[in-house]
UniProtKB/TrEMBL annotation:
PROSITE patterns: CYTOCHROME_P450
Positions of transmembrane segments: none
Pfam entry (one): p450
Family: Belongs to the cytochrome P450 family.
Protein name: Cytochrome P450
GO molecular function, one term: oxidoreductase activity, acting on paired donors, with incorporation or reduction of molecular oxygen
Native species: Kibdelosporangium aridum
The keyword Oxidoreductase is assigned to this record: yes
Keyword flag Cell division: no
Signal peptide per UniProt: none
Region (Disordered): 1-20
Highest rank taxon of the organism: Bacteria
């Protein structure tokens, strides 16, 4: 057990597909270490699977915005704290129970496994249409704008009831909000823009409801307009950014070595879970703050202390996964924390799994000679890791 303190969250990745090397070194010494946050708060960093899972599962920890300490320096937070940005009504992903549970229960009714399964034929159609266009145009192509970004964007738009024609606006706003280099004015403008978009959509649906998630929530008549706007914003951003980057980064990873495509096609379900574990694109946080004194893995966390968690570190923990730094697409990766754990576990995880399973398999099946065709740029200054571009070619 170590008592050393580190000056901040390690973020440098010598290998772009691996967590920062320092994360593994810290975890080998102890599952939790003292860490100084960018705002000067002395808290903790959890890198072990058991420690991260325990914090996420414990009601002794809060996810409320006003208690949060930022885990990395962001340009827009210079000279400010998250306490300067009051939480808007409906931001359920930054609430504690019972407020969180009230909204979560309504959303869970919209994200049932049955409803997600019913979406499969439509997702298959969307994937095939994009592949038809790619094949028709011929190589080379950048898969990010041609495939990995539009597929989840179109799916979440149809699920929520947002016109896909508005994608350029919300994709641009989302990118600004997730970019650590965005200034306060840029981030505020993006926030206002995307909230206005959702406000307009909700007003339209009050007049002309349809068979979509936002219309369903409006019909329940239990949420204010402001709550509906924020819920829609959270789902719209999370619903396309995470899956888009998993599709891009996962495809890049598969194309790194011969035989990986065949392994994925042999068992797409297992392969998707292993890619989720291995890549772990949520690489900054999450962060929770102790509401009371609590013990985690032998460490006494005092009330008011924050714990940052390294999901990539937890998903590469050798105490949980054998030979964790090896990508084994046949592995049983059950228990990974890519979707989080506890009450804030990703609401759309089943939809994301379906999109990845169909998206990876169709791409590799229809383009068996697919290969990389240039340098890629990694999203290392974004809150969601992934790729800005993915140039590929194939035998036409």
């Amino acid at each position: 057990m170590t008592t050393e303190s580190i000056p901040g969250l390690p973020t440098q990745r010598p290998n772009p597909l691996d967590p920062p090397a320092e994360i593994g070194s810290l975890r080998a010494t102890d599952s939790m270490v003292r860490m100084t946050f960018p705002d000067g708060h002395l808290g903790w960093l959890a890198t072990g699977h058991h420690a991260v899972r325990s914090v996420l599962a414990s009601p002794a920890f809060s996810n409320r915005v006003e208690l949060t300490h930022p885990v990395i320096p962001a340009k827009r937070l210079t000279g400010q704290s998250l306490k300067d940005f009051p939480m808007p009504p409906g931001m359920f992903n930054r609430m504690d129970d019972p407020e969180h549970g009230r909204i979560r229960r309504m959303l869970t009714g919209q994200f049932t496994v049955r409803r997600m399964k019913l979406l499969e034929p439509r997702i298959e159609q969307i994937v095939d249409e994009h592949l038809d266009a790619i094949i028709s145009a011929g190589p080379p192509v950048d898969l990010v704008p041609a495939y990995t970004l539009p597929i989840p964007s179109l799916v979440i738009c149809e699920l929520l009831g947002v016109a896909y024609e508005r994608r350029e606006q919300f994709q641009g706003d989302a990118s600004t909000l997730l970019n650590l280099e965005s200034g306060a004015e840029e981030a505020t403008a993006a926030w206002v823009s995307i909230q206005k978009l959702l406000s307009d959509v909700i007003n339209e649906k009050r007049s002309a409801p349809a068979d979509d998630l936002l219309s369903g929530l409006i019909a329940e008549d239990e949420l204010t307009h402001e709550e509906l706007v924020t819920i829609g914003m959270v789902l719209l951003i999370a619903g396309h950014e995470t899956t888009a980057n998993m599709l891009a980064l996962g495809t890049y990873t598969i194309l790194q070595q011969p035989g990986r495509a065949e392994a994925l096609l042999a068992d797409p379900v297992a392969a998707v879970e292993e890619l989720l574990r291995y890549l772990s694109i949520i690489h900054f946080g999450p962060v929770r703050t102790a509401l009371e004194d609590v013990e985690i893995d032998g460490h006494q966390i005092k009330a008011g202390e924050a714990v940052a968690m390294s999901v990539p570190g937890a998903n590469r923990d050798p105490e949980k996964f054998h030979d964790p730094d090896e990508l084994d697409l046949t592995r049983n990766a059950q228990g990974h924390l890519a979707f989080g754990h506890g009450i804030h576990q990703c609401l759309g995880q089943q939809l994301a799994r379906i999109e990845m399973r169909i998206g990876f398999a169709a791409l590799l099946r229809r383009l068996p000679t697919l290969r990389l065709a240039g340098e890629v740029r990694f999203r290392d200054r974004m809150t969601i890791y992934g790729l800005f571009n993915l140039p590929v070619t194939w035998d036409d």
